[in-house]
What we know:
The chain is of the alpha/beta class.
Amino acid sequence: xxxxxxxxxxxxxxxxxxxxxxxxxxxxxxxxxxxxxxxxxxxxxxxxxxxxxxxxxxxxxxxxxxxxxxxxxxxxxxxxxxxxxxxxxxxxxxxxxxxxxxxxxxxxxxxxxxxxxxxxxxxxxxxxxxxxxxxxxxxxxxxxxxxxxxxxxxxxxxxxxxxxxxxxxxxxxxxxxxxxxxxxxxxxxxxxxxxxxxxxxxxxxxxxxxxxxxxxxxxxxxxxxxxxxxxxxxxxxxxxxxxxxxxxxxxxxxxxxxxxxxxxxxxxxxxxxxxxxxxxxxxxxxxxxxxxxxxxxxxxxxxxxxxxxxxxxxxxxxxxxxxxxxxxxxxxxxxxxxxxxx
Length: 342
Ligand code: NAD
Ligand code: TYD
């Protein structure tokens, strides 16, 4: 297979590129990534001389680039490229509307024109909104996005749906829960907690810390996408989840435990506006139809993740020397006076 992977220099995309190159010796991947603040060529270290991987720096909104790649004889497109952080979307949603909606449209239109036989849209459980204490999202749960990020991902999903319905364009959508693992940008909860704890910096917990997410190790997500790519049915949606609900306080305590740091580092800070209380995924459909199950136990995945961040502190330091620190100040300064030390 010859596959266009977009956003393959980001967290999940770079893990997926490595997963596919390891799994399929004869596949070729073209990796289109704009290298925004979240894209990082260090995530693709070791692949520069791999003849099965070609990196192209470019924008999924750029019709000319996208058309050229789509016309190069592709079997499939997997769209990871996105603005992906809820808090940034609350500060300014414009890049989210551009990349997540207009970018997806540009890809869909060009893929349809060039008759690409498979299009996998990597979506998120956040399109379903927030749950009460009971129940889980199924593929039939009504769409009810609550953040600008979630609204932009939902819009993209609706475009994908319309392309299938109108043009029989062979697209599938995956909706996964929160991922964790190596190469995740340290603005997201788990890598932020690990990298701050390693530097004895305060650990910001929004509100009461009793918000619940379902966590999935990134490698399990890659295996699920592999299943959907090869066996998913056009026009279908597949939820992907880890069966692993944790409160944010459980997560921070686990990080502190493993790194043997003091709970005195925890700071309850001002809550995120519109913060979704709970996400949980019912992944029965991908289990029964495509025979996928999460394999990595949370304790194991967290141990591997924390080990990776301990061993790759240079990777974090390079990020911390760039645009990220300006974002960090803007995001956390107003939340609490006690965070000056951040
Ligand atoms: P990420 O922010 O780490 O990576 C996004 C990548 O997209 C970056 O490399 C960035 O440079 C690239 N990109 C951004 N705008 C672009 C553009 N206009 N053109 C080309 N490339 C562009 O995100 P991630 O966590 O790896 O998420 C990947 C996908 O998975 C996203 O679509 C996200 O919505 C979805 N998702 C993420 C999670 C999660 O927990 N991280 C869970 C479910 C779904
Ligand atoms: P995040 O990693 O941003 O993922 P998402 O909001 O897309 O689920 O956040 C995960 C949870 O952690 C969410 O409930 C918000 C919370 N959170 C904090 O408490 N403190 C932080 O500094 C961050 C970034 C997140």
